[in-house]
Amino acid sequence: MNAFQATLGMNRDILEELRALAAKDKAVTLRITTEETCNFLHSSTREETSPQVLEVEEKRGSKSKTTSHKVVSTITEQFYSVTVTYSLEAFTYTHPNDSLILTTR
After folding, report:
1. What is the pLDDT of residue 9?
2. Would you kindly state where each structural domain of the chain is located, as residue ranges?
3. Burial 9-44 (b: 16+ CB within 10 A, else e)
4. Which of 10, 50, 61, 66 could connect to 71 by a Cys-Cys bridge, CB 3.0–4.6 Å?
5. Could you give phi then psi for residue 86, rounded to 5 degrees?
6. What distance in Å separates the CA atoms of residue 41 and residue 22, rounded to the nearest whole number?
7. How far apart are the C-alpha atoms of 22 and 28, rounded to whole Å?
8. Pairs from 25-30 (Cβ < 8 Å, separation ≥ 24)
9. How far from chain centre, in Å, is Cα 62?
10. Smallest Cα–Cα separation from 18: which of 94, 93, 87, 102?
11. How far apart are CA 69 and CA 53, in angstroms?
12. pTM
């Protein structure tokens, strides 16, 4: 029971109601209902230049030419809003529609 209090934030009154249900009807079922949503917000594109430089030296006869190369990456970032909600309920096997909501988020 300490896990229910610490993790889910249930108070002592709710735990006492659970104990009373279990003592009266002998069987209590826990049901969790979840909903997850993901919404696209926007997209952003940017260019990032590598800090490393590649230098290539070309020699033709007595002449030499040095060329510098950098890598430029195009980065596209996509941003989303993610929401998760849940409800933890307890009910007796004889009354599944008459549930006690233990915690929601």
Report:
1. 61
2. 2-104
3. ebeeebeeebeebeeeeeebeeeeeeeeeeeeeeee
4. 50
5. -150, 160
6. 46
7. 6
8. 25/92, 25/93, 25/94, 27/92, 27/93, 28/90, 28/91, 28/92, 29/90, 29/91, 29/92, 29/93, 29/96, 30/88, 30/89, 30/90, 30/102
9. 63
10. 102
11. 6
12. 0.53
Residue type at position 103: T
Given a contact cutoff of 8 angstroms between Cβ atoms, the answer to whether 21 and 28 are in contact is yes
Tell me what the pLDDT averaged over the chain comes to: 83
Cα distances from 73 to residues 54, 76, 78, in angstroms, run 15, 10, 16
Q: What is the pLDDT of residues 51-94, one digit of tens each?
A: 888 888 888 878 888 888 888 999 999 999 999 998 888 887 77
Return the sign of the alpha-carbon dihedral for residues 93, 98, 100, 104. Answer: positive
Matching residue, tokens 């249930």: 10
